[in-house]
Amino acid sequence: MSKDNLRFNSKLIHGGQIPDKAFGAIVPPIYQTSTFKQDSLGVNKGYEYSRSGNPSRAALERSLTSIESGNFGFAFASGLAAIDAIMKLLNPGDEVISANNLYGGSHRLFTQIYQDKGVKFHFVDVGDPNNISPLINDKTKLIWIESPTNPLLHIVDIKKIANKSKKHQVLLVVDNTFASPYLQRPLALGADIVMHSATKYIGGHSDLVMGALVVSDESLANKLYFIQKATGAVPGAMDCFLALRGIKTLALRMERHCENARSVALFLESHPSVEKVYWPGLKSHPGHGIATSQMKDYGGVVSFVVQDDSREAVERVVSKFELFSLAESLGGVESLAAHPASMSHGAMTKQAREEMGVTDGLIRLSIGIEDKEDLIADIENALKS
Ligand SMILES: *Cc1c(COP(=O)(O)O)cnc(C)c1O
């Protein structure tokens, strides 16, 4: 049976994995080595130096390729290092059309590093894909989107945008971090590059920082491999081992994240001290229909606005949390709470933040895999304040 034809849950365990020839180890060993002995001049066993390739990284990259239904996968030292590798495909004068609802670190990299190097960025609301066409010209090289977005969980119609990118022969990149490959596979929807902060759901245990890219096209893969090797933002073997270990339980974790998120979202929606709830699984969410068509379930992140919509109200709530830790990041087994206005979006002006809907009273929850009754009790108690 070919491992390419496996169903998704089986791919998580077996996809891209090859038996260990040395001792039959079931788990790919951690090749904690910088270099590899050569048999003679120019003769090696497939690896020379761990920046250009390491067997632990290769095992992870084959797994990522399999679970994103692509042909080539690349692991990076962080999500931003993966994004940076994509940006290095561009030259001065090139133009990028990017979603305006964008991870803060991506926005910073685009506007504070690459814009100064001569790449032009157009930020638009890609919630309406028709906003893209008027901006496309011969200099346009890339369209950048994410779905669901951080922290308001807007949903972007990946297929519709892929139709435009293909028509104009522009690369479409989808940051798939919030969905994970379990919920959404952008390459199958027509994207050219799928990007992950593997720090989040892929790693899944809040114990590593890593990025990933998966593509189908071989010439694009060759360019990305050259950039990965030539610029060197690669993860170490131990982190690759941890990420591969995390992938094996991705389906089980995501099922529980989504189930718990649903209960929390419904609880929040009915709570008198909550003004607004953002979760794509709610019928009230404007992206619910598209999310249903392009995702398997609706994800483990729930955002909500507390009554008063003020920073003081948020302070009272988060100080009462016992299970939810106040922390950046998401996608781990434990529940976290974040305050986007002072954390991920703290560098923006209040006006710019509020224009995109990130008000002072917004709390973003990364729902973990604990018992949902305990999570709801924790939130209920905190909201009493
Ligand atoms: C965290 C995150 C990133 C950046 O990844 P790092 O691993 O922190 O470098 C990019 N995009 C999204 C949507 C993220 O949540």
- The sequence of SSEs as H and E is HHEHEHEEHEHEEHHHEHEHEEHEH
Which fold name fills CATH's third level, the topology of the largest domain? Aspartate Aminotransferase, domain 2
The overall strand count is 12
The average pLDDT is 96
Which secondary-structure class do the elements indicate?
alpha/beta
| Count of helix runs | 13
**Highest-level CATH class of the largest domain:** Alpha Beta
Total number of domains: 2
Q: Which residues sit in consecutive blocks of at least 5 with pLDDT less than 50? A: none
Largest sheet: 7 strands, mixed
Describe this structure in words.
This protein has 385 residues and is an alpha/beta fold. The protein folds into 2 domains: 3-248, 3-Layer(aba) Sandwich (Aspartate Aminotransferase, domain 2); 251-383, Aspartate Aminotransferase, domain 1 (Alpha-Beta Complex), CATH 3.90.1150. It is 35% helix and 15% strand. The chain is built from 13 helices and 12 strands. The strands form 2 sheets. A 7-stranded mixed β-sheet has the order 1-7-6-5-4-2-3, sandwiched between helices. A 5-stranded mixed β-sheet has the order 8-9-12-11-10. Helix 5 links the parallel strand 4 (140-146) and strand 5. Helix 2 (55-67) runs parallel beside helix 8 and helix 3 runs parallel beside helix 4 (104-114). The chain is globular and about 75 Å long. The N and C termini lie far apart (58 Å). The chain binds pyridoxal-5'-phosphate. Residues 78-80, 103, 105-106, 146, 150, 175, 177-178, 197, 199-200, 209, 211 line the site of pyridoxal-5'-phosphate.
